Amino acid sequence: MITLAVSLTCLGAKVKEDSLHISNPAVTQLFSELDYLRGNHSDVIKAEEEAKKALESAINNHKEVKVKIEQLKTVNDGYEKQMGALRIEKTNLKSNISALGEKFLPEMTRNPLFLSENSCDKCAPGWILFNSSCYFFSSTESSAVKRNWHESRVDCVSRGSDLVVIDNQQEQVVNFLINHQDASQLSTDFWIGLSDSEEEGTWKWLDGTFLVQGYWNDGEPTNLNDEDCAALYPRVNFFKAWNDVRCGVRRKWICEKAPESMS
């Protein structure tokens, strides 16, 4: 009986020893996997922290952008208010200029001594002295009389002048006078001494000089239906006030001549 017990004890010890010997590689693999998972966990935690920082930075940037947008909106609102005030001021100025033109221009055209900066020059009655030249607007004699381009030139020649030559920006202010001569007749247009009847597309003044600087309206000249003569139209922007027109059409006209010297 004792011998049997000893034998069983030895057998159990041998089985336990064999079990531990068999399980050691599995334990090693488990520890390896555990170390791997721990490393990956550290990487995940690090990536999570970096993501949190990136998110915080993005949130801060978003807040800064929102602040800048609000600031820009405030500035834009200020500009809009300024633009509105300028538009109102522009409208008021145009009204005031128009009223002044209606009030004083008729008196100036009737004054034979309407002077420019040169007090030694004068113009005949019905003519306007401006920029060292005398200008005659046919509308000052009759708002109903209109002539074609050639007839208008004949009339100017009979007055010792010719159709107006606009060869610099200062003389283009004549259109400003027209624009405010009569606010009820803004559709009125006037012949000027410019045509391309000799050679299509080559615009030439009556004094023989070629056009250097033109003040054409947008899209002009068009040369539709042999439009070989130039007419000046009242415009708010008097540097875009010319159209080409058929020479046979009847229009009002502007004459120009040198002033008379006062003795």
UniProtKB/TrEMBL annotation:
Stored Gene3D superfamilies: Mannose-Binding Protein A, subunit A
InterPro entries: C-type_lectin-like (IPR001304), C-type_lectin-like/link_sf (IPR016186), C-type_lectin/snaclec_domain (IPR050111), C-type_lectin_CS (IPR018378), CD209-like_CTLD (IPR033989), CTDL_fold (IPR016187)
SMART domains to which the protein is assigned, alphabetical: CLECT
Domain C-type lectin: 130-256
CDD domains per record: CLECT_DC-SIGN_like
Gene Ontology molecular function: carbohydrate binding
Keyword Coiled coil part of the UniProt annotation: yes
Protein name, UniProt field: C-type lectin domain-containing protein
Organism (species): Neolamprologus brichardi (Fairy cichlid)
